Amino acid sequence: MPRNVQWVISAMTSSLDSSLLLFSPDDEVLEQVKVDIGFQNLSQDWDSYMDPVEHPLKEHQLSELEPAPAEAKEEPTPPAQKQVSVQPVANSVPVLDGWPGVHQFQVTVRRRPEQAGRQLPYVYSADGAKLYTDMMVAVPFSFTYSGVADPSALRIRALPIYRESHHIQTPVRRCAIHREPQDPSNDTGHMMHVVRADHHHASYHVEQERCSVTVPLEAPEPGTDHYQVLFKFACMNTCVGGINRRRLMLVLTLEERASGRTLGRQAVEVKVCRCPHRDWRADEKRKGSEQAQPKASKRPRREPSPPPPSNGQQQLYVVADDPAMYRYLVEARESLLRYRRSVLAEQAPPAPLSRQDTAPVKPEYR
Predict the structure, then answer these.
(1) What is the Cα Rg of the chain in Å?
(2) How far apart are CA 183 and CA 4, in angstroms?
(3) Number of H helices, E strands in the chain
């Protein structure tokens, strides 16, 4: 065995530092060492044996020979931009104009058959689209629509609004008396809501202090062409601190359940009172009298005054546009003239008696 091979073997088998193997003379010597030691798999066993052997100055030598890698400069992380979700701004002024939309959305109040000797607790005037009802009475509202493939994807919202422009932005609230928990109208909760829906799947909402109720849209029952929902009103129009005699409108809208987009709108005026039939008759009578009377001009035309009579007495005239009224005025005039003549006759002084010459009366002597 050559001298250099014996030196390498003795270095490997001795207790000296195994890092001396890094200074072997050439590759032929290393190959001979592998054969003499007896590695079966020269490529794998030798590599596994030599992997843990490192020179103590290797790290120092490499640090001197190889340039140190440049430190990567940490770039400042830009601040995360806040994602702002843009949502459509709701109109602050509610709309009361009717709009059937693409589905021809229409609303009416059905009249139930009256019982013998009893009137219904509500009246609906179709001409003015106005409902007269008592408090907490289930009023049937009928909805018609067309062209809806999936009714379950839509819903109906009932929102009370004041009709006057100077009150339209004021939310409709109940009075303090009807908001009491002891009030019979609060047996099902929802004390702040004026409008209630008699429906198993009704949902109550409060948005910007406005109370509304929604019900899912359903297909009409077999044999009918409308979908019916019962609504109740839990406060009177005359309640102080609540509606307070302001005109109340019920806005009914057809909406999409997912997005809330309006597809149709109708409005019905509501008057909640104790005597619906009495108030309905009074309004109809007032409407009839207003239609019968012609509209008066702002400034009535004044008739020219007649010229004064020659005797100095002023004469006045009355215009009669009806024959019966003319006859009545003529009779009244004649009666007043007769009365005036009689009064003047009583006030006139008596006429002086004329003196007549008479013959002297001779006394009779007996």
Answers:
(1) 55
(2) 113
(3) 6, 11
Distance CA 113, CA 344 (A): 71
Q: What is the 3-state secondary structure (H, E, C) of 55-88?
A: CCCHHHHHHHHCCCCCCCCCCCCCCCCCCCCCCC
Q: What is the pTM of this model?
A: 0.57
pLDDT score at 48? 56
Counted residue by residue, the chain has a size of 366
CA distance 98 to 254: 12
Q: Would you say 24 and 9 are in contact if contact means Cβ atoms under 8 Å apart? A: no
Residues pairing with 265 in the sheet = 99, 253
Residue 276: Cβ within 10 Å count = 21
Residue whose structure tokens are 């929102």: 159
Segment holding 6, helix H or strand E: helix 3-13
Q: Which residues of 109-130 are buried (b: 16+ CB within 10 A; e: fewer)?
A: beeeeeeeeeebbbbbeeeebb
Backbone angle region of 136, left / alpha / beta, with phi > 0 → left and psi within -120 to 50 → alpha = left
Q: Which two tokens stand for residue 34?
A: 């592998």
User: 302 vs 4, which has greater pLDDT?
Assistant: 302
Q: How many CB atoms lie within 10 A of CB 106?
A: 16
Taking the CB of residue 26, how many other CB atoms lie within 10 A of it? 8
What value, to the nearest 5°, has the Cα angle with vertex 149 and ends 144 and 152?
A: 75
DSSP state string for 206-267? EETTEEEEEEE--PPPTT-SSEEEEEEE-S-TT-TTTTTT--EEEEEEEEETTT--EEEEEE
Tell whether the model's pLDDT for residue 134 goes beyond 80: yes
pLDDT in the model for residue 68:
53
Q: Is the dihedral of CA 253, 258, 260, 262 positive or negative?
A: negative
Q: What is the pLDDT of residue 301?
A: 61
**DSSP 8-state assignment for residue 356:** -
Task: Please name which of 87, 89, 91 lies closest in space to residue 251, comparing C-alpha atoms.
Answer: 91
Give Cα 10 distance to the centre of its chain.
Answer: 99
Q: What is the pLDDT of residue 336?
A: 87
Q: What's the mean pLDDT in 48-68? A: 51
Helix or strand run (H / E) with residue 339: helix 323-347
